[in-house]
Amino acid sequence: MSLTTWRDLGTPKRESETLVTISVDGIEVSVPEGSSVLRAAGEAGISIPKLCATDSLEPFGSCRLCLVEVEGRKGYPASCTTPVAEGMVVRTQTQKLAKLRREVMELYISDHPLDCLTCPANGNCELQDMAGVVGLREVRYGFDGKNHLAEKKDESNPYFTFDASKCIVCSRCVRACEETQGTFALTIDGRGFGSSVSAGKKETFLESECVSCGACVEACPTATLMEKSVIQMGQAERSVKTTCAYCGVGCSFKAEIKGNDVVRMVPDQDGKANRGHSCVKGRFAFGYATHKDRITKPMIRSKITDPWKEVSWEEAVQYAANEFKRIQAKYGRSSVGGITSSRCTNEETYLVQKLVRAAFGNNNVDTCARVCHSPTGYGLKTTLGESAGTQDFDSVMKTDVAMVIGANPTDGHPVFASRLKKRLRQGAKLIVVDPRAIDLVDSPHVKASYHLKLRPGTNVAIINALAHVIVTENLFNKEFVEKRCEAVDFAKWVDFIKQDKNSPETLEDVTGVDPELIRGAARLYAQKGNSAIYYGLGVTEHSQGSTMVMGIANLAMLTGNIGRPGVGVNPLRGQNNVQGSCDMGSFPHELPGYRHLSDSVTRELFEGEWGVSLDHEPGLRIPNMLDAAVSNEFKGLYVQGEDIAQSDPNTLHVTAALEAMECVVIQDIFLNETAKYAHVFLPGASFLEKDGTFTNAERRISRVRKVMEPLGGKADWEGTVMLSNALGYTMTYEHPSEIMDEIAKLTPTFHGVSYEKLDALGSIQWPCNENTPEGTPIMHIDEFVRGKGKFVITEYVPTNERATRKFPLILTTGRILSQYNVGAQTRRTPNVVWFDEDRLDIHPSDAEVRGIKSDDWVGISSRAGQTVLRARVSDRVQPGVVYTTFHFPESGANVITTDNSDWATNCPEYKVTAVQVEPVTQPTEWQKQFHRFNKEQLELLAKASETVGA
Amino acid sequence: MKNDQLIKMVNDIASFFASEPDREESINGIHGHISRFWNIKMREAIKQHVNDGGEGLPEIAVEAIRRLK
After folding, report:
1. For the domain with range A126-290, which CATH number is right: 3.20.20.70, 1.20.1250.20, 3.40.50.10950, 3.30.70.20?
2. Which of A185, A338, A586, A696 has the fewest CB atoms within 10 Å, measured from its CB?
3. Do B40 and A617 touch (CB under 8 A)?
4. Identity of the residue in B2, B19, B36 whose CB atom sits nearest the CB atom of A627
């Protein structure tokens, strides 16, 4: 594949039903009203020279290169800022225009280094291109006068440089920071000749508010903002379109490659999830894929105290298969199971659950969605009929009121956050429901109308109070409810919600939120326009996670905010393929497509295709597997791409369970925390090393395409095929497309999906079948998937995890922009310059009474365990609440989280742990033990290469 | 699996369905949930616990578990 580039049409596409026809150089072209002349010319295939204009940004009209002549008008207007008018006759090439453009270019080049041959942008420089296009042959002014050629280069950012000597002050970077990213970190400082791009208040890029999304680098037409990887490696030779493996936004990228090395990741202008934008992780933090810690050889050992032994794939897989068979013979068929990964592809996830059901012969398969969005699946299936969000991301641009509950999009889903902020800058209103003051509450040009700063664990009380106000103040959409929802359930629910126990005033003692704020927020959400709810793990990771999801669905149905653009219920999925791993039948009670095992018709369908008899009994969930392991009933586990020893709650319980097992098989790219308890290690493949698909938070299925050969020799799906065959259940797939064909054959919502169609359309939102052959951007338009929407009574039940005299503070957990999940990937990238350790945020008043200052070491103890972190005194948390992240294993954040969980799905209650915090001088016993164990395991790993063939 | 963990899970499930105004629906809700999502070994263990007196379980949960096949 060659290096693909996009044709830049100069200004953004406009949406209008009215078309305007103009003539450009004698060619007639019709474009939507509001389009620029530059855009119209581009649509007609005519390229007008330009520098400050690009079609991802609003026109600016500063470079004066895109001048045109318009019949009947005086002067030479800039075509980027001149809107089309019916009958307009435009000339883009005249002698006068050519002279003007050459003179403009001459001025630019008179203050630009003439080092094109050694410039990193050589071969990809718009300034260089334009100099050629306008026919610049000389610069009459010389370089003797004042210029910027000796400006100092800012190399502070780990991923890109800022070379002011090459800057033409076109403001594309500044506008990209404002319009695309919405951070407003860059500005033009000074005036006239003294104008220069400045990050913050004359700070370096690293010191500034810059979030390293790369939008400025992408927009820069010169080498002023340039990826360090391009400076080191030169321009790429070819490109492959693929999908990011970080968060649930699922950004489309063009991986630019030289040989077998990725030079850079460029956000895809055609990407329907990201619309040409990116964040620091997807854009820059891909270096983990070739990090020295990658393990590329299969390894085995009989005990976790033994050194690893490098073996062939065949030997490792046969060893694992023999162990699983031995364990099942000794302890029973249900004594083993598997865990699928939301980081792996749909096809790989599908194969692991198939292996468990067909080769192990039980249903002990679960996925990491258990610990994040399993309540979303349960709650939305119950109320709306489908375990998925209702919208596409484009929908946010038609939203009038966005309610963000328990999510921190600027950190967790940054590319979506940028679009949300753009809509808010256009005038949409924002309600934030969160115990912390997340960035969206008050950031440049964005301010929440309401921040309901509730106490952790009181989500359901808040959602009930909002619904109470809407019902009792008669603000609900009666017509929608009568037409679209179950009448009996609604009547029962109204009786419940109207009760005084659900009023904001009664619940104030519980939530800690001023009732008037709740009333105001309810009235705003119930306004007549489009209101949308976006939510994250702050909703699901509670003892009432599923109840809260149903409460959210209740609220959307109550106000008729379902079934059209701009509205809906939008779960912001944590990992890249959480939606897909759930779709693929990773849960122990259901087959792909969310069909329960007790459904004999579906079971027979799979039995026919797979050629085996399937167990109709639900299998064990992850916490059930761990409990059973501790009770010596569960002895073998195949884990693909997950790290339960770090990500799951109550670490001591998890590691005790792993230690009790006789065969733990880990398939991963690194020796993660769980792998340190493993007996077989199968080298995993990063997203760059395999073909497949991911499904993002908007149900969008996107292709993952192989960019380089797997470092361990096999893609993950190939490892699963080998293991299944060794277990005695034959799999014969030659390519992931064959796996997708099988998924499509067996799953009604995927009937129309194929690699061929994905290549043709770019991506597809399921359901995609006979009724919706090109997919479904918005669900539940005329009726709910379940027929009529179901209102569910959502009684607030306080969590058992409450502040006490012994544990007087509530710990809640979250994420940060630069790190991802358990950090296995991002900790192995330069992203650590922004965040290299988990900290404990504590309110100034709580810190003062304990004598704690920022940077002090503090001990955090809960009824589950203790750990030690450094403190950061911050008023972003409220008094009585402390907050931390869990990106670094040595932090032991999950040593203190408890085994409390959601009543319906057992999703852990990560967001509420009663703790005490006090100053300490040394690590905890757990941390000392962690470091000892880690050191031992790394030494055992180092011996692996010494024991090859031994 | 240890009974105390199963008892905690049943109590959590029962706390949700207890809000149904109709007792029979509460029982059906608990029964349906355990039937759909619990592994047979877990169901057998909690049934045995109920046969042994059902200590620590609310009355509607005991009734729901008695109806498990």
Report:
1. 3.30.70.20
2. A185
3. yes
4. B2
